[in-house]
Specification:
mainly alpha, elongated, transmembrane helix, HemX
């Protein structure tokens, strides 16, 4: 409870004494003030100080919050602009992607149409594929038979039949085993044939034809008497002019007559025109021998080689290097055998035709 203030008369009566008295010290005045203050006033003062401090702190926090809010608003504004730019780019990308997706869908539809067309075409062709393979095999076997009959080319016929067997092997059909066995039997027949070196013989004939123009004729050979070699080897003695003249006249007189034993019938001299036709006829005879070789006509081949050898021995110098080599080559060629009995391979061809006609539908 608060104390009541003294009456005004007491204050007024006491003031003259106070004024007249000397000023009290500062310490006494403070104590008087404190003593005069009531407890409520002190509480009010403390509350006021606390309120002021809280108001200042709150005002400071509000300022900080305003600055932070302004900063964040600025960042949000910048992020918003960046997001708008990004959204614009995303929209453009989506537009481009939509265009590309449309193009891909169009290509996909076209590819599906092409695939459907190819599947239908493959289905159409798969039915006739086996018949096509059989037709090819039949054609290969026919070629093999023609090579054997026309040119007796065993190697080409063997290659054609092996290719036909490979085509049947890739088909892997049990129904074609009989045809493959027939082809294998004909292949074994061709492999057992003796090998004739037709290219080697042909090469030798070509060399002989090329050497015909260089073969020396018998009439072109210069026979030198043996006495000449003796005279050339004997040393020349010192002799006078008359002796040398008489010796040269005697040597010229001895060369006027030459006696020689040819031991064979003398051939008449050939003119240049006859020499030309002789060489050309020899070439034609060798070419005829080549035709006999390619047609495997052994009788004609040996006859032409025999005539060519006789012509070389009769009209050409068989003792020279080229002449002896030509005679030896012709003799070796005459001894070679080119006649080979070709086997019959029509069984495989007939089997292929039968399979094509009877098993065509069953193979599908």
């Amino acid at each position: 409870m608060t104390k009541q203030a003294p009456p005004a008369e007491q204050i007024n009566s006491a003031m003259p004494e106070t004024v007249g008295a000397p000023a009290a010290s500062s310490h006494n005045s403070v104590e008087n003030i404190i003593s005069r203050m009531s407890i409520m006033k002190m509480v009010l003062a403390v509350v006021l100080v606390v309120f002021l401090w809280q108001w200042f702190d709150t005002h400071l926090q509000i300022n900080n919050m305003q600055q932070e809010l302004a900063r964040r608003l600025a960042e949000m504004d910048g992020n918003n602009k960046a997001n708008q730019v990004l959204m614009t780019q995303v929209k453009e990308s989506m537009r481009e992607l939509s265009v590309k997706v449309g193009v891909l869908e169009a290509h996909s539809a076209e590819a599906q149409n092409q695939r459907a067309a190819l599947e239908s075409l493959y289905q159409d062709l798969s039915g006739s594929r086996d018949e096509t393979v059989l037709a090819e095999v039949e054609q290969m076997l026919l070629i093999a038979g023609q090579q054997l009959q026309l040119s007796a080319n065993v190697k080409a016929a063997l290659i054609a039949m092996q290719q036909a067997d490979d085509r049947l092997k890739r088909m892997d059909r049990a129904a074609l085993n009989g045809l493959r066995k027939a082809i294998s039997r004909d292949i074994d027949k061709l492999r057992t044939l003796p090998d004739v070196d037709v290219p080697g013989i042909n090469f030798r004939l070509d060399n002989l034809i090329a050497e015909v123009d260089t073969l020396p004729l018998v009439q072109d050979i210069a026979h030198v008497p043996q006495e000449k070699n003796v005279i050339m080897t004997t040393p020349v003695r010192e002799e006078g002019a008359w002796q040398r003249l008489m010796r040269e006249i005697w040597e010229d007189m001895k060369r006027l007559v030459r006696i020689e034993n040819m031991q064979k019938r003398e051939l008449p001299l050939l003119s240049p025109t006859q020499t030309f036709f002789l060489r050309e006829n020899l070439k034609l005879r060798l070419l005829s021998a080549r035709l006999g070789l390619l047609s495997r006509d052994q009788k004609s081949f040996r006859h032409d080689l025999q005539l060519a050898q006789e012509w070389i021995v009769r009209y050409f110098d068989a003792k020279s290097t080229s002449g002896a080599r030509a005679v030896t080559t012709l003799q070796k060629l005459r001894e070679s055998s080119i006649n080979i009995e070709m086997p019959d391979v029509s069984a495989s061809l007939e089997a292929a035709r039968n399979y094509r006609s009877s098993l065509g539908k069953g193979l599908r």
